[in-house]
Each structure stands twice: as C-alpha cells, then as structure tokens.
Specification:
Number of helices: 5
Order of helices and strands: HHHHH
Strand content: under 5%
Keywords: Membrane, Transmembrane, Transmembrane helix
Radius of gyration: 18 Å
Distance between the termini: 25 Å
Largest sheet: none
Protein name: NADH-ubiquinone oxidoreductase 21kDa subunit N-terminal domain-containing protein
Pfam family, one: NADH-u_ox-rdase
InterPro entries: NADH-Q_oxidrdct_subunit, NADH-UbQ_OxRdtase_su21_N
Number of strands: 0
Length: about 100
C-alpha cells in the first residue's frame, strides 16, 4: 500500500519541497498561520473554562481545553505550511522567497 500523498493527488501549484522536514515547515509559518494557531488556542481555553460546570473543575477544564486547542492549532498551522511547500495550497510568496534564496526541491 502506497501512503505517499503525491501518488494520489497532484499539486496544483509549484512544488517547493516534496517532502519538507519538520524544521522547514515550522520555519515557513506565516503571520496567518500564527494568527490561526493563537485564535484556536484562545477559543479552546474559553470553551474549556465555560464547559466547567462546577466551580472546582473550571481550572482543570480550561487547561485541558487549552492544551487541546494548542495541539489542534499547531497541527492546523503545520498542515497549511506543509501544503504550501508541497504545492497543494496557493504559495506565491513562498515560491518568490525560495527562488530568491536559490533553493530547489
């Protein structure tokens, strides 16, 4: 069974890196990725706090919601950044930046 995503879907945009490393993907986060990451975390903290019905459970519920939001926000930002590097999402700014630096895939 082939689990390579490029085998089942063809990128619609220029490919910068077919298989980007973790550090390259995180280093490629843009402002919108960070905004989504922070927003998802903040909303999850609020939802966690509000879902704590009893007064003694509001704090732990808020922390749990925040951790879930933190992980989910990071994964969402990572997915968008990796998708741009692999050519599955619009990536005009990345293409210009990497061509200026002289990197190739």
């Amino acid at each position: 069974m082939n689990t390579d995503i490029t085998a089942s879907a063809k990128p619609e945009y220029p490919v910068i890196d077919r298989n980007p490393a973790f550090t390259k993907v995180v280093g490629n986060f843009n402002t919108l990725d960070y905004c989504r990451f922070i927003t998802l975390t903040g909303v999850s903290v609020t939802v966690g706090y509000l879902s704590g019905i009893k007064p003694g459970i509001k704090g732990p519920s808020m922390v749990t919601g925040g951790l879930i939001g933190l992980m989910g926000g990071f994964m969402y930002a990572y997915q968008n950044s990796a998708g741009r590097l692999m050519g599955f999402f619009p990536n005009e700014s990345e293409v210009a930046r990497y061509q200026k630096r002289g990197f190739s895939s």
